[in-house]
UniProtKB/TrEMBL annotation, chains A, B:
<dbReference type="InterPro" id="IPR047057">
    <property type="entry name" value="MerR_fam"/>
</dbReference>
<keyword id="KW-0475">Mercuric resistance</keyword>
<comment type="function">
    <text>Mediates the mercuric-dependent induction of mercury resistance operon. In the absence of mercury MerR represses transcription by binding tightly to the mer operator region; when mercury is present the dimeric complex binds a single ion and becomes a potent transcriptional activator, while remaining bound to the mer site.</text>
</comment>
<dbReference type="InterPro" id="IPR011794">
    <property type="entry name" value="MerR"/>
</dbReference>
<keyword id="KW-0678">Repressor</keyword>
<dbReference type="Pfam" id="PF13411">
    <property type="entry name" value="MerR_1"/>
</dbReference>
<keyword id="KW-0804">Transcription</keyword>
<keyword id="KW-0479">Metal-binding</keyword>
<dbReference type="GO" id="GO:0046689">
    <property type="term" value="P:response to mercury ion"/>
</dbReference>
<keyword id="KW-0238">DNA-binding</keyword>
<keyword id="KW-0476">Mercury</keyword>
<dbReference type="InterPro" id="IPR009061">
    <property type="entry name" value="DNA-bd_dom_put_sf"/>
</dbReference>
<dbReference type="GO" id="GO:0003700">
    <property type="term" value="F:DNA-binding transcription factor activity"/>
</dbReference>
<dbReference type="InterPro" id="IPR000551">
    <property type="entry name" value="MerR-type_HTH_dom"/>
</dbReference>
<keyword id="KW-0805">Transcription regulation</keyword>
<protein>
    <recommendedName>
        <fullName>Mercuric resistance operon regulatory protein</fullName>
    </recommendedName>
</protein>
<dbReference type="GO" id="GO:0045340">
    <property type="term" value="F:mercury ion binding"/>
</dbReference>
Length: 151, 151
DNA sequence: GTTGATTCCGTAGCTGACTACGGGAGTAAC
DNA sequence: GTTACTCCCGTAGTCAGCTACGGAATCAAC
């Protein structure tokens, strides 16, 4: 059960984790990964636990968690806060499903417009442009792309 | 067929379009909407065409177009470039469908984890946290959320 | 004719997640 | 023992799409 305990420099660690050195240093500044002690006048060394932490972050990011949320997840890391973790997961799941619904609305609208464009032959007006101009597209106010997608 | 040609100040226009004055001025700087002539020592006035332009931008944004892409769409505005517009629409449609697929993968993974958390009763380890730690979640490398979603 | 809101305009700040730069120190290869 | 890479560290820049600030001019109401 004991993984080999490599001792890596930050560059090696970055390569192993598939990310840049600067990214790791950025996570350190954000407090997401620890900065190991620096031997007197030497260079820091990282072990597989550090690598595991980076995988944790990557996977959580993929699941849609922000770095702030990941920091929160990491405080629950001892595994004894399953309820809290589950709540965070459920919230994320809700927002993911919301995004999917929004995107499906967009897909439908866009598909209709593209198909109308393909069908159009001799008409002067382009259906896609026309619908943007005249507001034919009806969208539900559940934003996904475009403005204020940083909330 | 003639819409009433209101003459609006930028504030009124902003209200009508449901956006802030600063946003409109930002679009002007980006060249997305024109800045009307300013009467000698007076204030600029906007008509319904300007409002239409803002609706165009909003709707295109909702469809997933960036402001740069919208600028491109606006050059096709005369309606005679249906092919070009359709190609842009198809590209966007492809990326929207890609995003949906990614999100569905995420939804599935997250749903599994949340359900495992709900089912878990006396076990010490939280399934969500554990899977982040040990990399149980397998994700396809079609990124949607998280890192480098600014490409 | 004064108060108070709005416009004008340039410039600067915000968010999130990086990414780059620069200069000095440490380390590895030959 | 020199060359060339890598590390360290702080600070600053990037991207997209806004949002805010500040000071002067203009306009609307009373």
């Amino acid at each position: 059960m004991s993984k080999k305990q490599r001792s890596m420099t930050i560059g090696t660690l970055a390569k192993a984790a598939g990310m840049g050195v600067e990214t790791i240093r950025y996570y350190q500044r954000r407090g997401l990964v620890a900065e190991p002690e620096k031997p007197y006048g030497s260079i820091r060394h990282y072990d597989d636990q550090a690598l595991g932490r980076l995988h944790f972050i990557r996977t959580a990011q993929w699941l849609g968690f922000s770095l702030d949320e990941i920091a929160e997840l990491l405080t629950l890391q001892d595994g004894t806060h399953c309820n809290e973790a589950r709540v965070l997961g459920e919230q994320k799941l809700t927002s993911v499903r919301q995004k999917i619904r929004s995107l499906q609305g967009i897909e439908k609208a866009l598909d209709g417009l593209v198909q109308a464009c393909s069908a159009q032959r001799m008409n002067v007006e382009c259906p896609l442009i026309a619908s943007l101009q005249h507001g034919v597209v009806q969208y539900s106010e559940t934003e996904t792309s475009g403005r204020s997608n940083r909330g």
